[in-house]
Design goal:
The chain is an alpha/beta fold. It has eleven helices and 17 strands. Strands 3, 4, 5, 8, 9, 16 and 17 form a seven-stranded mixed beta sheet that branches. The longest helix has 14 residues.
Amino acid sequence: MTFKAYAAHAPGQPLQPYEFDPGPLRDDQVQIRVTHCGICHSDLSVIDNSWGNAVYPLVPGHEAVGVIEEIGPRVRGRKPGDVVGLGWFSASCLSCRTCLGGHHNLCAGNESTMLGRPGGFADRVRCQWAWATPLPAGVKPETAGPLFCGGITVFNPIAHYGVRPTDRVGVVGIGGLGHLALQFLSKWGCEVTAFTSSPSKREEALRLGAHEAVTSTDATALGKVAGRFDFILVTVNVPLPWDLYVNALGPNGRLHVVGAVLEPIPVGAFPLIVGQKSVSGSPLGSPSMVATMLDFCARHKIAPVAEHFPMRDVNKALDHLRAGKARYRVVLNA
């Protein structure tokens, strides 16, 4: 069988039609016919080799949704015809203490969907069965793709760190990740503040569930919220005035980073010690957490705000995202 895809052949180059033979289906794999695939900034980072881990030819895509059409003999709980989604991870060892403890996303043997193997900008993609998560009723395939990266990236720390409905929470950056975090946290019951540098996004943030919007680049505005927050979720990938955000935390507060900020984050020890505050980060979530997130989305009618492009216009879609014009996620339709 030949898979048809779109691949970059060098850093920063436009994607070109690309065909390849995937070889035999592994015993523990499912084969998914892709119907939709989201695009996120991580795709751009890998296409450009900004992280230094790209392998060319590179088929990007790690927010794939589609229909299982073939399964290996060791697959459990999945069958042909199931509508499933696939995110950043496509396999884990399933046998280490980390996996057995339910933290498959932290497995040292993880396989990435688009690093060293072809991703979801294709007519088909494969993965270990555990990472193909069925879509529950109420989650639409055409907009579900971004939930498998942007969605689980922000949902996982909310659940993992026990954010409470009574907490005051801030979300820094109202983009592909942040607009989903606002929806999750507002339905979680929190008092939610959006931090954004774009005045045009203030009203949108309020419609998505924020109770207040603060200009993220205004030191005076940040000073006025000192000591307010139990949890601040950073979704941007640029340096921030970190001391002001740590100062915005109350006692026992946590500053949690999910944006891939490449520069070191300078944080003084004294503010952390005195306020018993924490700084942390996390990568996506386990298959179980993904399923929990999807159920939460179905229950509360949460969905990404997405713009759609046909798969053949993948380069136009990438340029649209690169230019910062996406509101708020981009999805490719097969």
